[in-house]
Amino acid sequence: MANVDKDTVTGTETTGHEWDGIKELNNPLPRWWLYVFYATIVWSIGYWVVYPSWPTFSTYAKGVLGYSSRAELEKDIAAARKAQEAQRAKIAAAGIADIVKDQDLLVFATAGGKAIFAENCQPCHGPGGAGRPGGYPVLADDDWIWGGSPEDILTSIRVGIRSGHKDARASEMPRFGDALKAAEIAAIADHLLAFAGQKPKSEAGAKLFAEQCVACHGEDAKGNKDLGAPNLADGIWLYGGTREAIVAQIANPRLGMMPAWESRLDPVALKMVAAYVYALGGGK
To answer: Which domains are present in the chain?
Structure first.
């Protein structure tokens, strides 16, 4: 009988091999572990046969069941659409003003509109319409450049702002850096900040404002939604409310653009997302 070599520290048998004074313990895996491992191999082969698995040059091995997660998804979407048909038909037939007055339709529309908003609008306007710096307006307050009624909101979404759509909303603010001196622009900025109590009144700024800005923004600086002229008296600023930011906007105005969603969303989806934006709290 051969001598059994055991490790003096652990008492475990060795394999009998030795390399540079290092011996290998004979400590095999438990049999139950090996059986489980072999079972997973058998199971994986069965999975390859039954379900889609290996890709080929032009397609893939589809399995004997012909299962497709894409087909399952399409089936689920079709079932969901079927369940929504009645409500979607009501939205298609109703005006946006009627939708926001009908509690059942409004709940359905805002639920769908929230998902549409998250996919299409949130990258610019932020979660919940909170807006983002750099000219992406807040949609949850009551400051609306083009109006906050349900119809106004729907129109803005449908045709966009400076989007190239034939009916797009568009406004153009002159570049006053070419027409006024730096001191005059600064005086107008001080006059605007005085509305929010951030600066003392500027008589020079008030005079220049009356000469250059009243035609669009009004004598009270509350804007004109028909022209897309924003309210300058509420302390809400699209491109920043510091004196420097206001001066920069007067001198060399930035003009944002929003896509027209009419070609991307169907009429029902447009109404749903408009209802959602209206329901954020700032709609009028």
So the answer is: 1-67 (no CATH), 70-168+258-279 (1.10.760.10), 176-251 (1.10.760.10)
